Structures are given as structure tokens and as C-alpha cells.
Amino acid sequence: MFIFVVGLNHKSAPIEVREQLTFSESTIGDALLRLKSEKAIDGCAILSTCNRTEIYCATTDLEKGLTAVRRFVTQSGPLEINNFANYFYTHSIYDAIRHLFRVAAGLDSMVLGETQILGQVRKAYQIACDYEASNSVLNTWFQQAITVGKRVRFETGIDQNPVSISYTAVELARQVFESLDGKRSLILGAGKMSELTLKHLCANGVSTVMVANRSFERAQTLANQFGGLAIPFSEMDTYMAEADIIISCTAASHYVIRKSMIEKVMAQRSEQPLFLIDIAVPRDVEPAVGTVKGVHLFDVDDLQNVIDQNLAERRKAASQAELIIEQEINKFLKWLNSLFVVPTIIALKSKGESIKNKELERVLAKLKNLSEKEQNAIGALASSLVNQILHDPITQIRHYASSPEGHLYSEILQNLFQLEVAGQKHKKKKNVEYSETRSQK
């Protein structure tokens, strides 16, 4: 059984190409059923996110399986077959295993070490199971990938250092307050960055959300998403004293928060700290605000410095993660190659036994005067000859089973001895092109 993946992602194709091949929750089930109906596909799963669409398959005939997926892709969108060379990547056997493991670990993501992708891999696998599109090989592959993703995060902490502006802002707030449970927040501006920051704040326990924006209607829309309160932009200074965390991200061309304003706010807060993050460019907050006692002020450059340090930490963790992935690949590959090797050994022994029995029957039919003891001696000799002849090939194929090329040695043995192996299709001549093998790395 061969495994492979065909896909495109943020590195191989621009957004205008990626958006031509996407599968929503409402369409992915039918897509899986269409793909599974292909005779060459024994199992399949589709991972479709904003940054990638990947089709994972198991097949007994790699060449026919790839052809079936290419046909499926061209039938699923306006993409033409020649776009494969330009935008699609294809990985098989070792490289396919490595690719899915790296995806699940967050090493192939736009943001190194992101956590969301592991849940997306798990969901893609679950949907494949729900629609009975998977098979035993694909099941084991995805289950192992999910295990790898968990292990990488647990052992390396690759996802512990925030690398987005909004999440880093919230993490800095946690450092100031230790816990955000019950804290009150005021957001100035109602754009995308404000929304992302609010999501992280609420996820970390912030109890009160206030939103001020020059467009009161937009402030209401954003506040309603989080069960918060919209306030007129002109009255924001009235509410500042009630906030523990102020995030400012407006489109103003001048300072909207000045030192004199914050001095009045702090006088009302009884020395309670105020955390203030200025995400806007140009800045919303007068730099002198940071000199006010009890105020913790950070701007975009401060956040970027933290992000750069965290990215460096994630890169260190990624190096450790690659070692973990190599270990897991070898374990999975050994299991996968056993699916080729064990049936091949059984078929080889069976063929040797069949030839032995046929020739014994022919010879003993001519030697009718032999005693039972003599017949047994000839039979033992024949068995010994067959076993000795097959000993080295079987020993070697077992040895190669744990290597990345184990499946190739099995195929060669099947072709040399013309073995019929259940669930595997041998070819009289090699016509499957393995474009990516471990030796090319």
C-alpha cells in the first residue's frame, strides 16, 4: 500500500490560485466520496484551510492513484492540469509521511509553531472517517501525525512564545497582572486588529469589554460580538479610569491619548496599575504617557522586539522538533514497510513451497520403487535446498524493511520472482516514477 499527498499551500501558490481549490465543511464530504469512488484510491482525506489544500491518499498503484487525484482536482475547480507543475507539490512514501508530520507540528505553517493546524488535521481525519473515505493505512498515518503534533508541542514548547501582534499584547498584559481574570478592558478602534486582540483578551478571562470608535455603529457591532459596551469616542476619557487594560488602534493622524489625560486617570485609580498598548501607526499614545507612575506603555516596536525574540525561540524549538519528527518517521516507516515486506516474504515462501511440491511429485512419480524412508529423505533434501536458497533474500528483505526504501526492495523481489501478493500490484517493469525519496534529501 502506497501513501502520497498532492497539495498547494501559501509557499507554493498565491492566494488567487489557492482560492480556486478549497473545500468548505458543507462540500468536503461529497468531495471525499467522489475521490474515494476512484478505483485507484483505497483511502483519502482532505485538509483544506485558508493557507493550504492537501489531498492525502492510500493506493495499491501509485501511478494510477496520482492520475486519479489530478483528475479529481481538475473536476473540482477551474484549475487546469498544467497548473500542477506550477503550483502543486507531490510527496510519496517517506516524504509524504514527513510532510504530514511537519504540518501537524506547525513547522509548515505561515506562522511557525501555530497551534490551530493540529486541530485542523484532526478534523480532516475525523471527516474522512465519518464519510468512510479513510482506510487502515490512512488511519494509522493520521493518528500518528496527531500524536507527533502533540509530542512536539509538549516537548519543545514551540507554541508557548507568541508571535502575533494581538496575542503578544495580551501576553504582555498577563505578565503585568499575572492573571487577566476579572480585568476590565477598553479598546479604542474597531478594526481587525482590535477584534483579534479582544478575542485573545476574552479567551484569557477579561470580564468587561468597552469599545470606543469614531463610528459608534462599528463600536456597537464589535462590542456586541463579545457581550461588551460601546461608548462614544468623545467620552472615552470618562471610562478610562474603569479600565485595567487599554488597547489603542485607531486611524488617527495625531495622539488621541496624552500624558495629561492619563495623569487624571491614574489619580482616580488609587495606584492600581494601568496597562496600555499602542498598536496604531502612527501612534495613538503620546510617548510621555509611559513616564506616568503605574502606567505600563508598549508600542508596536516594543511588541515587535518581543515577537523577534519569540521567533528566535520558536526556531530553536523547531530544530528540536525536526529530530522528534525523524524519530517518528522511522517508527511509522518501519510499520508501513512491513505491510510490503511480510506479505512478500509469505508469497516468496509459498512459491518456493509450491515449486518444491510440484517437482517432488514429478520425480517421485518416476521413482516408484523408493521406500517411504527414501522418499522422506528426498523430500527433506528438497525442503533444505529451497530454504537455503530463499534464506538470504528473506534475511536481506527483513533488514531493508526498516529503511526508507524497504517498499522498493519488496517490489523488486516481487518482480524478480513474479510473486502474486494480495493487495499489491507488481509490475513486470518499473514504470512508477518516485520523484521524491529520502536519498534526494
Task: Tell me what you see in this structure.
This protein has 441 residues and is an alpha/beta fold. The protein folds into three domains: 180 residues, Beta Polymerase, domain 2 (2-Layer Sandwich); 129 residues, NAD(P)-binding Rossmann-like Domain (Rossmann fold), CATH 3.40.50; 108 residues, no CATH class. 54% of the residues lie in helices and 12% in strands. It has a six-stranded parallel beta sheet with strand order 7-6-5-8-9-10. Strand 8, helix 12 and strand 9 form a beta-alpha-beta unit. It is elongated and about 120 Å long. It starts with a strand and ends in a 24-residue tail after the last helix. The relative contact order is 0.09.
CATH topology of the largest domain: Beta Polymerase, domain 2
Under the CATH scheme, which architecture of the largest domain would be assigned? 2-Layer Sandwich
Q: Are there runs of 5+ residues with pLDDT below 50, and where?
A: 426-441
**First-residue to last-residue Cα separation:** 23 Å
The helicity comes to 40-55%
Name of the top-level CATH class of the largest domain = Alpha Beta
The biggest sheet, with number of strands, parallel, antiparallel or mixed sense and barrel status, is: 6 strands, parallel
Mean pLDDT reading = 88
Which structural class matches the secondary elements? alpha/beta
Beta-strand proportion = 5-15%
Rg, rounded, reads: 32 Å
* Name of the CATH homologous superfamily of the largest domain: Glutamyl-tRNA reductase, N-terminal domain
- What's the β-strand tally? 10
